[in-house]
Amino acid sequence: MTTTQLGRQQAPQGNRFETVAWQWMRWSGILLIPLAFIHLAYMHIINSVYVINYHWVIEQRWVHLGWRIYDAFLLWFAGLHGFNGLRYVINDYVASTSVKRALLIASLVLLVLIFFLGTVALVGAPATPDPDVPREGLRLLHSILM
Amino acid sequence: MTTLLNTIRDGLMYRGKEGQLAWFGHRLAGLGTLLFFITHIVDTSFVFFFPNFYRHAIELYRLLPFQIGELLLLLAVIYHGVNGLRITLMDWKPDLWKYQRQLTWGTFILTAVLYAPAFVIMGSHALANLYNIHLFQ
């Protein structure tokens, strides 16, 4: 009889949220490879931080709706992927339940703030530069394309 | 805190070889990238919120310590991406687990191959702008 009872035992019910979080890390990770690699190649390697300035961002990048949408995808996918990773780290290293809870709430607040700042900037930035912002002088090396 | 210290101490003592190194690197690279991501969204949002202060944020990134940080960021993102792909592949096809060691070394090698040109080109931007040293002219 013991065997039948054992046979009737159901597989342990997993935590649904953790299953989705685990799958999310795989799917968002696959999407983030092209998103983040193209972003790095274009902004950090083909161009550089010596090229980027206020006018460049408005006139060369955010003038195109496509780049704004691209940046929004990168913001949301990287944000949710990164903060879920941070949640794993907190769960791994913090033993105290109350400290863990406080850290998780703090990171969630930070995530909401980051999403708010990034999304408002992407939607709200003007199509033409603010005339009150002085234009930066030309620099030595503009881009490896030059 | 004790848990973290134990992790570091045991991590140094536990001889997990390349698998443990891959895991530790993935975690470190992920946390480092997240730290930069948070900073980067705040500075980029200045374009909309404080356009006159955006130049100060960018000027910081142009300094040598931040350039070294940017080179490390590039390594972190490339490694995290390649290693993450390896983890996803092995989760998808568990038959690959028997090649775990080879795949891990493959991850290290592919990361180095992708990072080398990125390092040279990004480093050349920094050398040209910080020290007027032009590698490709």
H/E element order of chain A: HHHHH
Main structural class of chain A: mainly alpha
Report the sheet-strand fraction of chain A.
Answer: under 5%
Mean of the pLDDT scores of chain A? Answer: 89
CATH class of the domain at 23-124 in chain A: Mainly Alpha
Which regions of chain A have little confidence, pLDDT < 50, spanning 5+ residues? Answer: 140-146
Architecture of the domain at 23-124 in chain A in CATH? Up-down Bundle
Radius of gyration of chain A: 23 Å
Total number of β-strand segments of chain A? Answer: 0
Gross geometry of chain A: elongated
Q: Estimate percent helicity of chain A.
A: over 70%
Q: What is the 3D shape of chain B?
A: globular
Can you summarize the main beta sheet of chain B?
A: none
- Named at the architecture level, the CATH assignment of chain B is Up-down Bundle
According to CATH, what is the class of chain B? Mainly Alpha
Features:
heterodimer; A: 146 residues; mainly alpha; 3 helical TM bundles of succinate and fumarate reductases; 0% strand; disordered C terminus; B: 137 residues; globular
What does this entry look like structurally?
The complex is a heterodimer of chains A (146) and B (137). Chain A is mainly α and 146 residues long. Chain A has a domain at 23-124: Up-down Bundle (3 helical TM bundles of succinate and fumarate reductases). Helices cover 71% and strands 0% of the residues of chain A. Chain A is built from 5 helices and no strands. Chain A has helices spanning 2-8, 16-46, 54-61, 65-93, 97-124. In chain A, helix 2 packs across helix 4 and helix 4 (65-93) runs antiparallel to helix 5 (97-124). Chain A is elongated. Chain A starts with a helix and ends in a 22-residue tail after the last helix. The relative contact order of chain A is 0.12. Chain B has a single domain, classed as 3 helical TM bundles of succinate and fumarate reductases (Up-down Bundle), CATH 1.20.1300. By secondary structure, chain B is mostly helical. Chain B is built from 5 helices and no strands. In chain B, helix 2 crosses helix 4 (64-92) and helix 4 runs antiparallel to helix 5 (100-131). Chain B is globular. At the A-B interface, helix 2, helix 3, helix 4 and helix 5 of A face helix 1, helix 2, helix 3, helix 4 and helix 5 of B.
